[in-house]
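[09:14] KT: can someone run the structure on this one? pasting the chain below
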Amino acid sequence: MKFTPAFLSAGALSGLNASWSFMLGSILAWGVIGPLTVWTGVATGQPVDAEKYPGYMYYMSVSSADPVNSPSPRYWMLWPGVMVMLVYSFAEIFWSMPTFYRGFRSACTRLFGLKPISQRPSGPLKDEELDDPAPPHEQVKTWQWAGGLLLSSTATLAVGKFYFDMNVGVGLVALFLAFIFSFIGVQSSGTTDFNPVATIAKASQLVTGGITRGQGMDIKKAQNTNLLAGAIAAQAASHSVDMVGDLKTGHLLGASPVSQFWAQVAGCFLGIWQAVGLFILFASAYPCITDSSIECTSFGMPGMVAWKSVTEAVTRPELPIPPSSAKTAIALGIAAGVTVPIKHLLVPEEYRSWVPNWSGIGLGFVVPQAYYPIAMVIGAHIAHYWEAKSLSSWEIWGYSLSAGLIAGEGIGGMLIAILVIFGVDGQALGTGLGCPRVRFSMASLKENRVVIASLFLPQGTVYYDDDRSGSAVDDVELPQNVSKATPLNAAKAAQRLGLSFSIVDDLTKASMAKLQVLLSTDEYSKQSATPIASPVEDKTNPFSAFTSPRLGPQQGVKPLPSRLPALNAAVSTVLPSLAPLQPLTAEAAAPKRKPSRRMSRSATRSSTMRRSSSVVRPTPHLGFLNAPHYTPWQIEASSHGNTGLLNAVNSVGDVIQRKLWVGIIDSPTDDFSEDLRVDLELKYESEYNSLPVWITDSEFAGCYDGYCHQVLWPTLHYAVPDAPKTRLNLYDSKSFEAYTAVNRKFAEAIISTYQEGDIIMVNDYHLMLLPQLIRERIPNATIGFFLHVTFPSSEIFRCLAARQHLLRGMLGADLIAFQTYNHMRHFRQTVHRILSLEAVPKGIQLENSFVDVQALPMGIDLASLYQKRKDPEVAQWVAVLRQRYAGVKLIVGRDKLDEVQGVRQKVQAFETLLERHPEYRGKVVLIQVALSTTSENQSVAADALSTAISRINSRFSSLSYTPVVLLHTTELNFSQYLGLLTVADAFIVTSLREGMALRTHEFIECQEERKRPLILSEFTGSYSFSGFRSCFVVNPYDAIQTASAMAAALSISDEEAATRWNDLHKHVISQTAQAFVTSFLTRTVRAHAEHTQKPVQKIPVLPPLTGDSEVVQEFKAAKKRLILIGVENTLVQHDPKTTRDLDFSLLDSVLEVVRKLSEDERNVVYLLSSRPVSGALEKIVDGLPNVGIVAEDGCYLKAKPNKGEKTEFVNLVSNVSMQWKKPCVNLLKYYTERTPGSFIEERGASVRWRYWPGNPDDSELGWARRQAAEAQNHIWDSFGEKFGLRIVPATRSFLVLPQSASRQNAVELILRPEGPPTPETINSPTALTPSPSGETPFDFVFAIGNEERLLSRVNSVPNSVTVTTNLKNSNAKWRLEQKNVLEQLDNLAKA
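[09:31] RB: done, structure tokens below
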């Protein structure tokens, strides 16, 4: 329900029929049909927040990656709504055709110079003639309106053609549609008082979408044309409705038509500038109007996302309407059209108001906000009863009041927009009706800079050296359109020459040389009259190799465009991988000059491989930036940067308008001069928004090749390295020192450029120390950390010698995000076990702050992939591959050449397939695309893989069949790879451990037409999501089971394959790159705002609570006050040894002060204690009968009794099983026997183990802490998850209690309007449910203690005062030393 005066007034003016029709349409669409579409799988939504609201979906988005096969309910509803409104409006117009005909005939008569009707000889008028009631001198002359129509149409066509490149024919069609649809706008607004501008625009877009598809327009031009056509139709309808309304008003008032005409002309002219100003105003206030990536939360009407989504849909090659939606639209359209003649022919005049208005019903389909029809129905009923009560009063006041409310809401919207721009609107400064909460809009990302820290920059520095002294371009250098490897072209060329040729041959130098000789002969020239249709330019390799970036010259690098001459295009289209054609003589085989090569970091960590100083030429300051022709230094895309991250960030480029990439360049830098570094920094900053981090080559080798890839990478993937294989071990201090040095240099670089408000995004395991290093220097920085790879169980991670350093480094972030929930859970358990910190489902509780831990899986940029798939080059390669492998099934895989990727296991399983299924021999080929990795890791995997492939090919190959084809990513471009994915009959991933296998997402989207299956390892993070359970799951260690899955995937029926693909596709389109980036950044900012605590020095000391104190004044003014007082470390100094002393009690002076507070009838006093009910608290109850008590940290609660009554403790965790307590106590007895001085406190619903009550400086404290950590791990493994427990570490003890128990939860029950549960009400269903509205009967709340979560919660209550006695960072409003607590409470009691 939403109070909207405009729609209340619209309902009052429209009447009951239109309002209830609108309501009926909304109920039918969103209460019946919408849920059915979701239930049957016809439509799908997007996850809201899998961590905070698991299982909840959002269905109101218009956008969808695949609007035809997987539409959102709102997009699905759009077309039935459009159809109903079009059909019903045209049916009504048709029924009124005589009137329209007479008007049209009259206009044409006057247009062609005939005399006006009023000037004709007197006599009776014919039926088809319309009399103009205005005298001739007040009528609008033909030249005036016809000239204006011609002028506006010409201007529209001219602007469309010369400014938007819109075809004139399409423009004329748009103008004709504008004329036709204007009648719909007039008719619909006349019956419902709602102008369906958006619906009219979408109908126009649908028509012009068919025109642009038929003309074969470029997609961008088609979309621009489509948007413009929709805008023309929408604006024509809007202006028609407005002007007809003006004319009706003027007619009622007796105004002159010609005066109104010129007034409208003047108004339109002024409105042009006013409209621009209003657009700028609202677009500045609400960026979602022009930015589809921002969800409109400030108002409910559809924003630009609807225009964008419909435009993308209607310009698709196929019909953009889901089939089921189209059928529903046709059925409802027929019903709407039939209703008109039935109403006019069969329904008596007095009952026609009961016939539903289909324009209103259609409106209910296209407007998903239910509060609009509700408001209209309420307004219609108010007007109906008002008219019935006093018609004259309604006519005098009703219309004026309705019009004023409509205009007032519009003016109010303008004022709110102005307040939003100045940052003083209700969302910024308002309290949300007493419930303030953290709000963060994506608009903030446009205001704040995002600093993205990743080991490698997206762009690398490239050095080209051809041993020449001048800058002239040599003729033998390779041209820009020559790529280093296009094996599929080579295969095609060989096929045309009649050679027996396989893709494997493409990869050998011998066959390439043979091809070069053959291609230089006349025989091939004659056959090449029509060159093979293949790409003429190699795309930048998109496969981000996880390698040591020390590429050998054999891999080749695309030369600089500025140094390239032209070459015969026919040659390059035949074989882009070859040099200019010439006979391959001995002299020709050796190039005259060395080809340009990339001087990048060596593939080995040996210092002997480092580039000598002579390679770097002296470079003057800023010299190469201005070099007109040639310079040895350039910057181009790096093959080692995190491509997935780069694509994700670029996909939301409109949202993240200010960003800074921080990383190292992928070239050795020891020999870079200072001037060169300055030049590079300027170029990176000005052109790429990047900041290079300068590290030495030895630091790089120790950090990247050493610690990252020989220690961290294997450990994180459950492959604990051993010293004999890696020459390193988990205790290697030298490589960790290099790792630390690199992280420190990153921190220094970020700190040096840090700006207030920056959002720092730290990526992956290379920089695990970085968050804490930044936090130490910038305590208030907003930092998020995302781990792109897996995180192992604590048993694996604990093997690392630097485990504590790494964990504490990560905990410097506000948010730590992982790919899957399992990785997140492993991290929480590891932190709890190794650092003895409290781990709760939401994150990690530190001493002075809280760190959110969430699962935020990455996705792919679907829109970008869709455009790349439409590249003609992809279709060319699809045709080549289908011809090359006609009659053969293809299994495709793409993996890093690393042991954990399971490539060897995949090949062995394929061998098992050929052994156990001989029918597939010669009929199936495994094409494995390999990404190189570090030399040490790659050598082991490559040797084993090479042996396996050689064995299989020797056993099963023939002259025309090679079962296994191995391609490196340097040997094919992205278009070729997409071609492989498109023709594949199955895609297989057999990783032994992996985070998100995003390559499977690419395969699924490339299979939109064929819908072939996916074979996926159960050890990938992707498989942990339910959407991926429709794949063929395999255990890569089981070759027989994997082979069986391959056979099943190859023999699957088309129907089952389509069903599986649809499930996979729905998950892929809901897990996008855009969703990842926006979710990560918004949650980072939200976590920082929620959990950042003020330094204790900045928290003011609570002033004496005397008469002139502000706190006392609020206290006195309140009618009902809640006073929450902590016992331990607040009323008394906590001493763990006294907890076993049953004679312990509060001092009489303490009891007296609390008693004074409780005697005031306006005060409700509660003591909050961690002590058990039996013992000390029983004595307190006897001494303070009017005080409520929370015991055992929220497990038990005794409500404040009413006067003359007595209450008992109630168990707040009675619904939790306590079967864990006895075995937990027995386990702790084992550790108590081995830890001197320790003891167990067994309580009613919790257990506390105090492992060291002695001197904190005692040397045996270290042993006690290790025992405590072991005991916590043991308890958690045995009972934690099974019984839903949480373990709360303290300084020298830890507490085990149910997860649902806490002081904060107990106070939530106290704050309820109905109060806390009592023994009489504890068994009611809502006894333990907090107030959903957040309402409270208290108008003043005073809380003092050291429970940070409780103090933060109380801060959100209006008129609250929070005081911390912890003397650490806190969100409390005041601080106070424990020794002064009693005095201040006494002052409060006296007040």
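[09:33] KT: thanks! Residues 219-253 form the longest helix (35 residues).
[09:34] RB: yep, looked fine to me
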